[in-house]
Design a protein that fits this description.
The complex is a heterodimer of chains A (about 425) and B (about 425). With about 425 residues, chain A is α+β, with helices and mostly antiparallel strands. Chain A is elongated and about 95 Å long. Chain A has 20 helices and 20 strands. In chain A, strand 18, helix 19 and strand 19 form a beta-alpha-beta unit. Helix content of chain A is about 40%, strand content about 25%. The longest helix of chain A is centred in the middle third of the chain and has 12 residues, at about 145-155. In chain A, the strands form 5 sheets. In chain A, strands 2, 3, 4, 5, 6, 7 and 8 form a 7-stranded mixed β-sheet that branches. In chain A, helix 12 (about 250-260) crosses helix 14 (about 275-285) and helix 19 (about 375-385) packs across helix 20. The mean pLDDT of chain B is about 80. In chain B, helix 6 (about 85-125) packs antiparallel against helix 15, helix 11 (about 195-210) crosses helix 19 (about 395-415) and helix 14 runs antiparallel to helix 15. Chain B has about 425 residues and is mainly alpha-helical. Chain B has one domain: Up-down Bundle (Amino acid/polyamine transporter I), CATH 1.20.1740.10. Helix content of chain B is about 80%, strand content about 0%. Chain B has helices at about 1-10, 15-25, 30-35, 40-50, 60-80, 85-125, 130-150, 150-165, 165-175, 180-185, 195-210, 210-225, 230-260, 270-280, 285-315, 330-350, 355-380, 385, 395-415. The chains are: A alpha+beta (about 425), B mainly alpha (about 425).
């Protein structure tokens, strides 16, 4: 079947293009293209044609030729139906054109100006999204004019800004239901990038993309998101899901988030969590935001002085996935009184049979629970530690402040 | 702030809770409406008062209702969709329409910014400050406040600026009007269809309902992140704003009617109005009037360039936001700077024909507004977009009638001016 296709097309070549019958009479115009929802490059399976005031579905096979005129036999024209095929499809104008998408390669949100199709075995496949100025000008109908003007005046060739379809994550319409399939595209992103993307989006798209993430990814992204948006996002999901996500977050970030929520909601979320984690968070929640207690986390490793280096390393390995503080092991006695701090360097340079008490430095620096956050920052700057233990009046170890929390105090708007 | 919100939302006494929530959520509507009383607005109201006395004052009530109807739709769209107006227009009407609309909005807003800096220059000249000092300083101030401040602090500064509009109310009371007569003008409006009067009426309408406001209001509602449950507060905010702006407009007309109109003084600009007040009502009135003009112009000049840069980038798909670096959002900063520099720069050009420029900007406003109103009506009735928050049948009739009257009036304005 040869429909006389060109090598490549843009969506703007098709939109509003006239459709003719075999006796060269105008019978309608194209209002949308229909693609099969398939990875990595969806095939165009038909188009929507507006004829006599109605939108009809025209399957690709029924088109006699595309160039120079899109032609259709009169008999086929009579048989057109309004119903779409049962298959899993994307309406390209409705769901993709002019919408915001996530470019998972460049890790940013862009707006679709045009779509780029390539001919593969007599059919067209959607291969690129055009997000550039050239695409915008093509839509407006100024492509040639602007291109030639730029060449003439500046010898500048206006480039196409293509994003391969395999890196495109749609945000609107039916694709949201499909996210479990295409979600893989999102999981390529670094949580911090994902967080920026969620912040850049608005309204339904923002919550939709957040809903589609699994609890672990959602937790990682949430830690990086602006507190105001964090709060709004948590309020859009069910309590059960919120509990799962908060459980995966680092305790200090989780406590900050819960502190911002209405008390009843925070309590519901805590109740849905693992007992132990919830208890830790409740303890953290008691302390005001601007004090050492408000900055600290409870996900650290503490051991007694008699433990050998070998055992300590083994414990650190085993606990590592759940720890916020990886650089130090904290030594406490039976009453949880802080005795000393051992760094990973100390552990690695010691003999495996030495006890922690033997290798620990003689001095230990700690801050009090109610110490002001600015004092904490100063202590970090002065001693150059990557984490600082927090103790109460009796010297009991209550938590540890990681370097990242200090960054949040110093540069709250960065990142 | 967060503690305060928590305290309010956990407060048992519902009255305090309501009042507290309103104060947290207020801002967008009140700010938008007050920016509306900018240099162009003050000039138009002054002229209306000086030329026709209190004859046109009744029109403030229908205009206020129209403003509320239009603004409410924008606020509702912002709350329900969480998106800006140019974003919604782009997604529904496509790239071509959006592109041309953005050109139109850029030009009208450019004209408005120009008139704001002209307002600063004129107002400061009353205090004896040369425009070669006042305009560059204010342009820098505007740029600095937005680039170096956060939205929160900028918004607070603007809410404080709203308070200064009271200078017009004080001026109005100083001139001791005959309140009985004023009231009668409202109760028994005199309608006449003299061409000069209708032109003025259209001017008042045109300056009160402007295209940029719809974009700005919706964007700041989105920025505030107001939830659907709290929408009633946002609506109240919008209504309050519309009422406030018309109270100020009323006092400006009143002052000019009681002084300039009674003594038959002819004026052409707001600066003329301020200066002519001195011999009739004392020099404090002049200062208050000029101070109000400077405040209003500066206020609007801070908002318009930023809002324009945002909406253009949003519509055309470029990165935008003051938290981005220049290299990340070159178009955004480019437009922002261009608008401020052009706006302030053109005013410094010697012997500038200001009045034709203002007229031209009004005509552009009038040409763009009908499109925006129609787009808004289509968008707000889109079930997929607004779900069950589309216009009801009664509201729809009111909204369409308002829009059609607005469109008819602005078309009339264009025809008159051309």
């Amino acid at each position: 079947m040869d429909q006389n296709l060109k090598e490549f097309y843009f969506f703007s070549d098709f939109l509003n293009r006239r459709v003719y019958n075999t006796s060269r009479q105008r019978v309608g115009k194209i209002s949308d293209l229909v693609a099969e929802r398939a990875e990595p490059y969806p095939m165009i399976i038909g188009m929507m044609v507006r004829t006599k005031g109605r939108e009809m579905y025209l399957p690709w096979e029924k088109i006699i030729q595309i160039e120079p005129q899109l032609t259709l036999s009169a008999k086929e024209l009579m048989d057109l139906k309004t119903s779409l095929p049962e298959k899993d499809i994307i309406l390209l104008k409705e769901e993709v054109m002019d919408k915001q998408i996530v470019d998972t390669f460049g890790a940013k949100v862009v707006r679709v100006n045009d779509l780029h199709f390539l001919r593969v075995d007599y059919r067209l496949r959607l291969v690129h999204v055009d997000a550039g100025f050239r695409g915008l000008m093509r839509r407006v109908g100024w492509e040639k004019l602007v291109d030639q003007a730029l060449r003439w005046f500046f010898s500048y060739v206006l480039p196409n800004q293509f994003i391969s379809w395999k890196y495109v994550q749609l945000l609107s319409g039916s694709d949201l239901l499909q996210l479990s399939v295409s979600q893989k595209k999102l999981s390529h992103l670094h949580p911090a990038d994902l967080a920026d993307i969620i912040e850049d989006l608005s309204g339904r798209e923002r919550s939709a993309i957040f809903h589609a993430l699994d609890a672990e990814t959602a937790a990682e992204a949430l830690e990086e998101i602006d507190p105001k948006i964090q709060k709004a996002l948590i309020e859009t999901i069910s309590v059960e899901k919120a509990s799962d996500i908060v459980e995966e977050m680092s305790p200090s970030d989780a406590a900050d988030l819960l502190a911002d929520l209405p008390e009843e909601r925070a309590e519901e979320i805590l109740e849905g969590m693992e007992q132990e984690k919830a208890e830790d968070l409740r303890e953290l929640l008691v302390h005001p935001d601007e004090t050492a207690g408000g900055l600290m986390t409870t996900a650290y490793l503490s051991l007694t002085p008699g433990v050998t280096v070998e055992t300590a390393i083994a414990r650190l390995k085993a606990e590592a996935p759940n720890l916020d503080i990886m650089d130090y092991i904290f030594i406490v006695d039976e009453e949880e009184i802080l005795q000393g701090v051992v760094s990973i360097r100390d552990l690695l340079t010691a003999h495996s049979q030495q006890t922690l008490a033997e290798i620990q430095p003689t001095r230990v620096v700690s801050v009090k629970l109610d110490e002001d956050q600015n004092e904490v920052v100063e202590a970090f700057a002065k001693y150059g530690f990557r984490a600082l233990p927090v103790v109460d009046e009796e010297g009991q170890l209550k938590g540890v402040i990681g370097f990242r929390s200090v960054l949040d105090v110093l540069a709250p708007d960065a990142g | 702030m967060t503690n305060y919100i928590k305290w309010v939302s956990s407060s048992k006494r519902s009255l305090w809770r309501t009042i507290g929530l309103f104060f947290i959520l207020m801002g967008p509507g009140i700010i938008t409406s007050n920016v509306d009383n900018d240099a162009g607005g003050i000039t138009t109201y002054s002229l209306a008062g000086a030329e026709f006395g209190l004859k046109l004052i009744w029109s403030l009530i229908p205009i206020m209702i129209a403003l509320i109807v239009v603004q409410e739709m924008g606020a509702r769209m912002g709350v329900v969709t969480g998106k800006g107006l140019s974003d919604l227009i782009r997604e529904k009407f496509g790239a071509k329409i959006t592109f041309y609309l953005m050109i139109g909005v850029f030009l009208t807003n450019m004209g408005n910014v120009l008139s704001e800096f002209a307002g600063v220059a004129a107002g400061m000249e009353v205090f004896g400050v040369n425009k070669f000092i006042s305009v560059p300083v204010s342009a820098f101030l505007v740029w600095w406040m937005v680039v170096k401040g956060t939205y929160k602090s900028v918004e607070k500064a603007f809410l404080v600026a709203c308070v200064f509009y009271i200078s017009y109310v004080i001026t109005g009371i100083i001139v001791k009007p005959d309140w009985g007569y004023v009231l009668e003008q409202f109760v028994h409006p005199q309608l006449s269809f003299q061409p000069s009067e209708t032109t003025m009426l259209i001017g008042v309408v045109g300056t009160t309902i402007a295209p940029w406001m719809q974009f700005y209001l919706q964007a700041s509602i989105v920025e505030k992140g107001i939830k659907i449950e709290d929408y009633k507060f946002a609506r109240f905010d919008v209504v309050m704003g519309a009422v406030m702006v018309h109270i100020v407009a009323f006092f400006i007309i009143l002052v000019c009617a009681e002084t300039l109109f009674k003594h038959g003084v002819r004026i052409e600009t707001a600066k003329d109005a301020a200066l002519s007040l001195a011999p009739l009502a004392g020099k404090y009135c002049t200062y208050l009037f000029a101070f109000g003009l400077v405040n209003a112009s500066l206020f609007a000049a801070s908002i318009l360039p930023l809002s324009t840069a945002y909406l253009i980038c949003e519509g055309l798909g470029w990165e935008a936001g003051i938290d981005k670096k220049f290299a990340e959002a070159p178009q955004f900063y480019g437009f922002y700077s261009l608008i401020i520099f052009l706006g302030a720069g053109i005013i410094l050009y010697p012997n500038l024909p200001l009045i034709p420029i203002m007229y031209f900007s009004q005509v552009l406003n009038g040409m763009v507004l009908p499109f925006i109103l129609i787009f808004m009506l289509f968008l707000i009735n889109d079930k997929k977009l607004m779900m069950n928050h589309t216009n009801g049948p009664v509201f729809n009739v009111i909204a369409w009638v308002t829009s059609i009257v607005m469109i008819a009036l602005t078309l009339l304005l264009i025809i008159r001016m051309l």
